[in-house]
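Need residues for this backbone.
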């Protein structure tokens, strides 16, 4: 298992703006601009990203079930679709860290709803940035034959892959190595964490879904769609 801590990631200067603008129907007044700057700074100061990933050989896929040579099993029509044609799956997890979770909790408990909304916007975009960064690291470090390529990442809880499947991912990789735990509702703690899977296989055989959002019925109205 590969563990990455003390990640040096450059956060875009405008991180959080796009998501917040969508939340605020497209316009940020001077007061919101000031609040965004202040809360963005606080988020960047407490950001402690960490990640881990591991490779697993796929044994077979039968209907909506993916069987791994490790004995692990995924169930779901969309994860089996995404991994169809892949020979290897990379299970990954990453987090923005406990400190940022505690900061947002403190702001929320202080009754500062706007501050909480702004921090959620900033950290949502931070998860995209860290996720793309980890994706690049995985694709750079996986030793695969020429002519192989990767699928888009897919996560438990996304369309037609139930959140309960988090249990299998946590059985395959130990999230506690980077401080991530799973609560009884299969939500990750720290909350600002993501887990998922990439498939790797011959370019002409792997699934060509561009992003998970393309399979999601909420994409038309969802402000978070990619
Ligand atoms: S469209 Fe929205 S809800 Fe659907 S997968 Fe994308 S971000 Fe998630």
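Answer:
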């Amino acid at each position: 298992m590969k563990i990455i801590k003390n990640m040096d990631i450059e956060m875009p200067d405008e991180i959080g703006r796009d998501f917040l603008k969508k939340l605020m129907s497209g316009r940020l007044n001077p007061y919101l601009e000031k609040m965004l700057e202040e809360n963005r700074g606080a988020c960047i100061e407490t950001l402690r990203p960490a990640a881990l990933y591991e490779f697993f050989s796929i044994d077979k896929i039968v209907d909506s079930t993916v069987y791994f040579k490790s004995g692990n099993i995924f169930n779901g029509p969309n994860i089996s679709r995404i991994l169809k044609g892949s020979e290897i799956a990379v299970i990954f997890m990453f987090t923005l860290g406990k400190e940022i979770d505690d900061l947002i909790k403190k702001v929320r408990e202080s009754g500062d709803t706007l501050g909480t909304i702004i921090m959620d916007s900033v950290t949502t975009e931070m998860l995209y940035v860290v996720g793309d960064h980890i994706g690049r690291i995985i694709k750079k470090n996986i030793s695969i034959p020429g002519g192989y390529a990767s699928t888009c990442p897919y996560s438990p809880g996304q369309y037609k892959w139930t959140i309960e499947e988090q249990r299998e991912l946590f059985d395959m990789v130990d999230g506690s190595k980077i401080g991530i735990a799973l609560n009884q509702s299969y939500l990750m703690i720290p909350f600002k964490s993501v887990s998922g899977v990439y498939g790797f296989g011959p370019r002409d055989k792997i699934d060509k879904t561009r992003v998970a959002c393309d399979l999601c019925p909420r994409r038309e109205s969802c402000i978070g769609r990619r």
